[in-house]
Hints:
This protein has helices spanning 7-21, 26-36, 64-72, 101-104, 108-114, 150-188, 208-211, 232-247, 308-314, 318-328, 333-340, 344-358, 363-373; strands at 41-48, 53-60, 93-94, 119-130, 133-142, 193-198, 203-206, 220-223, 226-229, 257-263, 266-275, 290-297. By secondary structure, the chain is α+β, with helices and mostly antiparallel strands. The strands form 3 sheets. It has a 5-stranded antiparallel beta sheet with strand order 2-1-5-4-3, with helices on one face.
Amino acid sequence: MLPALSDSDLxxxxxxxxxxxxxxxxxxxxxxxxxxxxxxxGGILTQDPVLRTGSALAGFGIELSRTxxxxxxxxxxxxxxxxxxxxALGQPLTTAMLMPRHAFTMTEFFNDWIRPQDxxxxxxxxxxxxxxxxTWLSAMRPRRAEALDQDDLDTLARLAPxxxxxxxxxxxxxxxxxxxxxxxxxxxxxxxxxxxxDRRGRLVFANPAAEALLGARxxxxxxxxxxxxxxxxxxxxxxxALARSAAGSRDALxxxxxxxxxxxxxxxxxxxxxxxxxxxxxxxxxxLRVAAILIVADPxxxxxxxxxxxxxxYGLTPAEGRVLNAVIDGDGVDGIAGRxxxxxxxVKTHLNRILAKTGTTRQNELVRLVAGTLPxxxx
Length: 379
């Protein structure tokens, strides 16, 4: 159970909660914590005493150059963190707990780092630990300020768990954001159009291949945020599939629906509507959850722009790679010869070598092998 908060603490906790959701607010939140105990500078920093590394997560009232100096040198001579056992999680530590005031004022840390910034004293508290590495919240008091009293330490002890919780929330959100960005980066390289649609039928994500299919003259379009097919019959099937996906639950998901999208003068597209299951995070606002994944493969777009991995896996030469590229594009022997500017006999020789190296006997078998080996990725 977290310690009871005073009325004055509530604004600080609110600032910490906001910082957990918006990393740009951490410096402001640290300022609120430090100000509660009369601090005019401070920060949250992570240090590893074994590896002798560290970094600042947030800070206020301390010049950036001083922060660099701290990690380059003064962190290793800080008497609060050097040569003493790091205190328990949430337990405030002051310099007065370690040594007499006159002894502290004789240290290199005080004279070369604390005093030049017009600080007089420091207090800190460990807000996270992971093995030898720890995260430390510090606050600096101004010169000629009264000494920290027990009320100040009690205040910091009350606020420390909220700092810890806010950091954990921020860390989890950061991990989720990193994963989200990684998935976006991965889908950006996929040749298949991929879209996410929420329970309201609104488009919440489209990779570049999907964006190329969305428009007033394209087979798919977005109107008022909703994905629809330009062909009326196809749109009826699409909207019915999306409605089933939105109504489905984790235990009773509808199957994949195939929607044919006619195109003027070109081969039709086949859109797959893949229902997405519910997740616990959806319970706060179910309308925002992803209800369906839409996947479209364009038959006019080559699915494997990159075949370098296949060439390397089977030891194909650059010349054989050029022949294989033509085979993937559907060219016959005569077409390959004309495309590459070589004789039919040369094409047949390269093709026979490709078949031998890959353990295949026919071109269609070779193409199936490529399809089973290479993901549909852009270069």
